[in-house]
Amino acid sequence: MRREFWKSAGTHLCEVDEDGWLTATPDLLRAYFTRPEVHPVEESCAAEHALFEDLMADPFVEISPERLDAIADTDAADNYRVVLAFRGYLAGAGSVEGAYLDIMTSGAGDVPPVFLDQMVHLILHNILRRARDPIRLRAGEIFFREQNVSTEDGRIMLADEEIVDMFAKTGAAGGLGQLLVDSATPVRNVELDVLDEDNKDIYWERSDRFDTVVDFRFTQPALDAFARVVEAWVKHFLGLAVRVQPRQSIQDDHWSWHVGLDREATQILNALYEGTPVAAEDAARLIALFGMEIEERSAVIDAVRGKTVYLALGMTSAGKVRMKPQNLLTNLPLRKKA
């Protein structure tokens, strides 16, 4: 039986095409036009109110630069420019996935990071909509939500950074051990529970709260679950079947290709590959390592065909994980399509 999760992703505001990709509907755009940064306030000028009403009536209506220039609040006008540029990617690509690829391959700097995270959230909900394992869904959160890492007692515990920060601001003591207890906040009671095979069903009712913790150590279910999400992500976008397995180290005389899943992992893998000495404390910032086998060998460049592609996820010196899922789409050793 399918169970609902991530209702905040906004998949209900999209349509699914015959290829399984998401098409942006007018309602999806209306959700962006009603964001607090864009929605007019009572003091907004007549030009801004008129523009908003036109966009709500037809979210794809063409807006001239002159109409934006006529808005009295220059910050509001800039916010509209950002959202309309984002709308341009969605309309031009014809799908949310296509727009995401266009943005990532073009190196566009005019799309706010929060919009990119929302796109990944939306796309991943579509990809995992039939998933039945809550631990796999929790592992998927790493793709679009920053994580806070605790390595106390030899474990590698990942908690949502926003939730941890909320605890810190409401008086919770430091350390993950202190965070794994009830904490009263002005809004509601929040709990951070370590998700495992025994209690994982609690995730279904709390999926949009992002308040569960996973153990990311080797042999733990969350690490394998993350590997399955990587496989599904690559398959959905690139149509490639890949097999991803957690590794403890790289013992490979024929190491030919690697992909860092974040900036820190990329830097550390590059140094190791080039034979540059890496300090022990820096090497310890690699919290997960994987080997990927691309099953369709004809899709791979000759130099890497039949070889393992290594993937790694790392944390910053401050213990944060900020994944870049686009690296799985743009940095694999694939032949260019004719």
Structure characterization notes:
- The longest helix has 20 residues, at 74-93.
- It is built from 14 helices and 13 strands.
- The chain has three domains: 7-127; 134-215, no CATH class; 221-330, no CATH class.
- Helix 4 (74-93) packs across helix 5 (96-106) and helix 7 (134-140) packs across helix 11.
- The chain has helices spanning 26-33, 46-57, 65-69, 74-93, 96-106, 113-127, 134-140, 161-169, 176-179, 203-206, 221-238, 263-274, 280-283, 327-330, and strands spanning 14-16, 22-24, 147-150, 157-160, 183-184, 189-190, 193-194, 212-215, 242-247, 257-260, 286-294, 309-314, 320-321.
- A five-stranded mixed β-sheet has the order 7-8-4-3-13. The protein has a four-stranded mixed β-sheet with strand order 9-11-12-10, with helices on both faces.
- Helices cover 39% and strands 15% of the residues.
- The protein has 338 residues and is α+β, with helices and mostly antiparallel strands.
**What is the general shape?**
globular
Domain count: the total is 3
| Number of E-type strands | 13
Helical segment tally?
A: 14
Mean pLDDT reading: 91
Main β-sheet description: 5 strands, mixed
Order of helices and strands: EEHHHHHHHEEHHEEEHEHEEHHEEEH
Beta-strand content estimate? 15-25%
Residue runs with pLDDT of under 50 for 5 or more positions = 173-190
Strand order of the largest sheet: 7-8-4-3-13
Rg from Cα: 22 Å
Going by helix content, strand content and strand pairing, the class is alpha+beta
Straight-line distance between termini: 42 Å
State the share of residues found in helices, binned by percent.
25-40%
